[in-house]
Sequence to fold (704 residues):
Amino acid sequence: MSHEIRTPMNAIIGMSHLALQTPLDARQRNYVEKAHRSAVGLLGLINDVLDFSKIEAGKMVIEQTGFQLDEVMDHLANLIGLKTEDKGLELLFHVAPDIPAGLVGDPLRLGQILVNLGNNAVKFTEQGEVVISIEKTAEDAQGVELYFRVRDTGIGMTPEQCAKLFQPFSQADSSTTRRYGGTGLGLAISRNLAEQMGGRIWVVSAPGQGSEFHFTVRLGLQDRATAVPRLGREVLETMRVLVVDDNACARDITASIAASLGLQVDTAIDGAAALVAVARAEQEHRPYSLVLIDWKMPQMDGIETLRHLHAHDLLHVPASIMVTAYGREEALGEAERRGVALRSVLTKPVMAGQLLDAIGRTLDHKGLTEHQAGLIGQDAQAAMQQLAGARVLLVEDNELNQELALELLRNAGMQVALATNGQQALDWLERDTHFDCVLMDCQMPVMDGYEATRRIRTDPALRHLPVIAMTANAMAGDRERALAAGMDDYIAKPLDVGSMFRTIARWVGARCAVPGSAAAAVQVPAPAPPPAGPGLPHLPGIDTRAGLATTMHNEVLYRSLLGKFHAAQSAFVSTFRAAQGADDASAPERLAHTLKSVAGSMGARGVQSAAAALEGACRKGESALCIDALLDKVAIELAPVLEGLAALLTPPVAAAPPAAHPAEPAQLRALLKELEALLTAGDSGSQDWMAAHSGQLQAACPQA
Fold:
């Protein structure tokens, strides 16, 4: 029934969207736009009615799957964040730090309740904020009870209006539908979902004072939940942080998150107070390490405050992170226009993990990330020594991911064979069963990693061969799918080098630990330090620090990968549109998945996030209208990245170099050995090498 209803609706929405892309006169455009808006509204009504009918028929099944609460909240922020930004509202999350990392339940239906309540809060609020708080109210051996509160500063309701809520097709009063729209089913569906998850829902409100929607749910606990890493906490606890925000609620929440990480936190209500606090801390010889500052504040905004701060004659100038409810790119652009360098910008709502990552990136020159990198580097180094000499079959179809993985694995002293799809992997293993491990990408043409692993497990000789998934889908459901196919473990993309080597060593180390074996003779080099010299320029849309970390700070490799990314993804939009009309229905999803994966490896977080949303829409079979909108978002994120890479990869026109003196024979042999190593590895850095040393080669071989 739902398929029969949704299919023609998707056709109407998709065709009217396409019609709007054609030349129309004003009258025709008016007609088509009205039809399109009405169809979108009708589809929303149909979805609500179908969900409610499923509930009434007792067919709504609550799944029990492992998930991370942070993933649900990230999805929520993506769905309603733009709406709050368009209305100039603050969207804030306050998640208690004692909530377990690994939960069991139905993340889709939990997210549906939060989206319903969040959308209502935004709809009925014209100024102020929407705050979503989560606390743990009970915990036992079976699970936890979580309490959610969605508070807004909107129009509010009378007790009589509150009494009508949570009933099917009911709103506060008849004027609500006329003014704000809606079906009146969202709250009824939310009530039923909360009750099916062992909780309840209620509302507290007063006219003109906003509303608070409360609900509880019971969730299970994962047996082996992965704890959120807190490396360097002993360093964090020594650091003083100043939180600056004119919004009291936002200020308190940001301060609470920072305190939960172990930071010593002070607050200031505006830019002037912040300047006074920083000066006082300097005089007391207790300077701040970091300032977390809001952008849009009255009198003196965050950018102007930082400009004054940098102009002060301070012995210890604190680093800064801009925290804003407005667009990240807008903040960076405005700061650049005013001559203020922003190392990091976070968009609200801020989660603890995001803040910790931003602090690490921003304070690396003050010891935090050096401390963390030291711990990760030691673990990775130990794992690399353990893995030296291991034989690994890498199964990966993407050229950029191939180069990255091959470089990292071979630098660790491993012998690596390459297959570009699941069928090639099976062909390899039919010829040679003496591999210590298979690193298996999950989404590939011809045969994906899941099917290849299932077939590997049918061969008695390969039943105990470790197969480790390498997937850009780090959600709990994707991990379970990998394990269900017979894989032993997984490595998330973009690669965390230390985590990757630790995971491989957990499965391969014992197989390689043979006294007197070839592995013992292999000396593994230490991870390369960050290169000297000017390094990489600022690249729009790319966190080069994160990208370099993926390559263990190998700038030559990173530049090569950036070049491959530019070459492979420059035509992404046209390639994706062509794939939509092709016979292979899975091709668009696979293209979005690949872009998500490689963008993450490069540090292009905006592209990665947009591609992930596009991939999810393709997987769920969303409407053509939805997919087109998400493709437009990818194009917007991708354009500045490609433009910056084009500038990076275009060699500057230089004056002719002075004639070089012939190199000494020993020096020439050393230079040629460098070139030989680059060519043997297929490294595009050989082109840079030739540009740098062509004069010496021509002087040594004038007839060449």
